[in-house]
Write a structure and sequence with these properties.
Layout lengths: L7 H8 L3 H15 L4 H19 L3 H24 L14
Length: 97
């Protein structure tokens, strides 16, 4: 299983949050991805990628609930960041493997 920054214990703890609390985690990642500071922006995008990858590897009920609630907002904010006129080519060190 793929769990880098979100170590096993941390990721499992995130999964135990209720949907309101979990939304705060998603909102924090998305806020960071829109930050003016390059490093904060890259960290936010990397956290989103990692979170999506980790959730995709969970049981079908958990991953389905996550993607139904959070996939569109994550996708919208990611497109916002990538199409933002302040974005410079090659600015993000995002690992999408």
């Amino acid at each position: 299983m793929r769990r880098n920054t979100c170590a096993n214990g941390v990721f499992l703890a995130l999964l135990k949050l209720d949907s309101r609390q979990f939304k705060f985690v998603i909102d924090a990642c998305l806020w960071a991805s829109k930050h003016d500071n390059r490093e904060v922006k890259a960290a936010g995008l990397n956290m989103c990628v990692e979170l999506v990858n980790n959730v995709a590897e969970t049981d079908p009920a958990t991953s389905t609930a996550f993607f139904q609630q959070f996939f569109i907002p994550i996708l919208q904010d990611t497109f916002f960041v990538l199409t933002d006129t302040d974005h410079k080519a090659g600015e993000f060190g995002v690992d999408v493997r």
